[in-house]
From TrEMBL:
Annotated GAF domain residues: 36-182, 210-371
Keywords: Hydrolase
Lineage of producing organism: Bacteria, Bacillati, Actinomycetota, Actinomycetes, Micromonosporales
Gene3D superfamilies with a match to the protein in the record: 3.30.450.40, PPM-type phosphatase domain
Pfam families: GAF, SpoIIE
InterPro entries assigned: Bact_Sigma-Reg, GAF, GAF-like_dom_sf, PPM-type-like_dom_sf, PPM-type_phosphatase-like_dom
Protein name in UniProt: SpoIIE family protein phosphatase
The organism of origin for this protein: Micromonospora zamorensis
All copies of domain PPM-type phosphatase, residue ranges: 388-604
Record bears the keyword Hydrolase: yes
Length: 605
């Protein structure tokens, strides 16, 4: 205003009531489209732009609070990237409202739209929009042509735009029909998956003997199939929660649901539904739930705030019971407002899952104790490494994931009377106590056969074969035997013999990696009497000799050669790492431990 009085504010734009019509919004959702480019609808926009010679053309779909453009040409920034606008910038909402074409030679002259922000922000002056409809005739949006200057639309242009809108509507109807067919298929699959889940809970949990892993697998199986989020609670000797596994269907809520589970461990009040289930072993169903239920059940006010973000409108909780009905924990399922409420059928399903899960958790707990004993046994069989002035030695042993058994992987190193160092690594077939016992026999045979003898390593391996046969030991094993002659301040001579074992590696000072290839020779315990060979190389100061078992390189989804190549690449440039860090790095690189792994690293000083 030139007289200094304040400018008159534009009145708020009230969306037409037609935009919020539920059936129309369902049809819009069934298209599966959103504010992202879609090639088919971008093609319609390009045709409108080319045939009508307009700078901007849109396939605009209108929801209750915005319009979005699966097809667009010529939008200015930032709208071209956003692919949507609020209704304050929408002409197409009026096409939905009036359900007929809207043709404006100059929008600034029409009271319906002259206050619309699209005129200033998007440069909309001339506008022609044709309704886009579903099979029931509901208007979902508009195929529109836009110019940034006044324009007299011709009958031929409007006819072309109407024809393209009819074709575009057909494409929308196809998307809706496809979504309906897919939804029907999804319902059938979901029902089948629920039956499979109940039938397969025991099998799902039987794949691991680790309690934490078992609970995470169960949670992943139930969400989102049975619930929006869940809490699996294990109790300790006091009857209170000692471990909680929590999962939400939305990965963005992972931090919230983890925090909720953390607080649940210490924040249950006497009125808590979960605590009641843990105490009584009786299931609970809350068909209708609210934040008030959370508030009553906790001593941590933060839990109600988090539950509000996670969503809670219905819940159920069932016990996990072991042998004799002992309550080991509880399964709690929660649904938000957008999902159907839990009912008695859901409760029966959950009770069945809780019963099967309780048995599996009881078994896992027992095996967990056995695993600890087994690992102690395994480590007791592994030797202490010698201290050698000219060499640095480091070793690691790591059992396979999800196994309670001990295994047959081993390493050894000892100093000969003449100062030479004998290093060995091997893998006895099997993953049980029998394999571990056999491993102990083989290690002792190696020591007894090699100690104090100046024979070549090839001869020592041949003698070892003879001892295994002569003593009728049921041993089948791979092994590598190495002799290192330390030289103070000089180059160390290394000889080795390999019986079917993965090749040793040398990481040279400077970072290059050498594979100590040799002519393949048979496993120990399987060969007829034969002379085994010795190979030789040198270790200069800073070089590292790496012996390892196949658990470091073997996976079900790749060959050993591929695993060896990956290990070689990983070792390149690691010559400056401290030896212990190098060993830890190699173990950490194993994504899923499918086999036991032993490492023995020797670095020349």
């Amino acid at each position: 205003m030139t007289d200094g009085s304040p400018a008159t504010a534009r009145p708020p734009i009230v969306p037409p009531a037609a935009l919020g019509e539920p059936a129309r919004l369902r049809a819009l959702a069934d298209t599966g489209l959103d504010a992202v480019p879609d090639e088919a609808f971008d093609r319609f926009a390009r045709l409108v732009s080319d045939l009508l010679d307009v700078p901007v053309a849109l396939v605009s779909l209108v929801s209750a609070d915005r319009q979005f453009f699966p097809g667009a040409v010529g939008l200015p920034d930032p709208w071209s990237e956003r692919r949507q606008t609020p209704l304050s910038h929408s002409f197409c909402q009026h096409v939905v409202d009036i359900q007929v074409p809207m043709v404006l030679p100059d929008a600034r002259l029409y009271p319906r739209v002259r206050e619309n922000l699209a005129i200033d922000d998007l440069g909309v002056v001339a506008y022609a929009g044709m309704p886009l409809t579903d099979l029931s005739g509901r208007v979902l949006g508009s195929l529109c042509a836009i110019d940034n200057k006044p324009r007299a639309w011709t009958a031929a242009q409007l006819r072309t735009l109407a024809d393209l809108a009819a074709a575009c509507s057909s494409e929308l109807r196809l998307r809706i029909a496809l979504d309906s067919a897919q939804e029907a298929g999804r319902r059938i699959v979901q029902a089948h998956e629920r039956l499979e889940l109940v039938a397969g809970v025991s099998e799902t949990l039987a794949g691991t003997l680790d309690v934490g892993t078992a609970l995470r697998r169960l949670a992943a199986a139930m969400v989102p199939l049975l619930a929006d989020w869940c809490l699996l609670t294990l109790i300790g000797p006091t009857g209170l929660p000692r471990e909680v596994v929590s999962v939400h269907r939305d990965p963005a809520r992972a931090a919230d649901v983890d925090r909720f589970g953390e607080l649940l461990r210490t924040g249950l009040s006497p009125e808590s539904m979960v605590r009641a289930v843990l105490r009584t072993g009786q299931p609970r169903l809350g068909s209708v739930a609210s934040l008030a239920d959370v508030t009553r059940g906790t001593t941590h006010p933060e839990m109600s705030t988090i539950a509000d973000r996670l969503g809670i409108a219905s819940y159920l909780s069932v016990p996990m019971q072991g042998v004799g009905g002992t309550v080991l924990g509880a399964i709690t399922l929660v649904n938000g407002a957008q999902r159907q409420q839990f009912d008695d059928r859901d409760l029966l399903t959950a009770v069945d899952i809780g019963r099967r899960a309780g048995q599996a958790v009881g078994n896992s707990s027992m095996y967990g104790e056995q695993r600890h004993v087994a690992e102690v046994l395994q480590h007791s069989m592994l030797p202490q490494l010698p201290i050698v002035t000219e060499l640095e030695l480091a070793a690691r042993y790591q059992p396979a994931a999800d196994r309670v058994e001990v295994g047959g992987d081993w390493y050894d190193a000892f100093v000969q009377p003449d100062g030479d160092v004998i290093a060995a690594i091997g893998d006895v077939a099997g993953h049980d106590i029998e394999a571990a016992a056999t491993m102990g026999q083989l290690r002792n045979l190696v020591r007894g056969n090699a100690f104090g003898r100046p024979d070549t390593v090839g001869s020592l391996m041949s003698n070892l074969d003879g001892a295994i046969r002569g003593l009728r030991l049921p041993i089948a094993a791979t092994a590598t035997l190495v002799r290192i002659c330390p030289q103070r301040g000089g180059v160390h001579e290394v000889t080795w013999s390999n019986a079917g074992h993965p090749p040793a590696l040398v990481v040279h000072a400077g970072g290059a990696v050498e594979v100590l290839e040799a002519t393949p020779e048979p496993l120990l315990g399987l060969a007829r009497p034969s002379t085994r060979t010795s190979q030789s190389t040198n270790l200069a100061t800073g070089d590292t000799l790496l012996l390892y078992t196949d658990g470091l390189i073997e996976r079900r989804d790749r060959s050993i050669d591929e695993g060896l190549a990956e290990l070689t690449d990983r070792l390149a440039g690691t010559d400056t790492l401290p030896l212990d860090e190098l060993c830890d790095l190699l173990l950490a690189s194993i994504d899923h431990r499918e086999d036991d792994t032993a490492l023995l690293a020797v670095r020349a000083r």
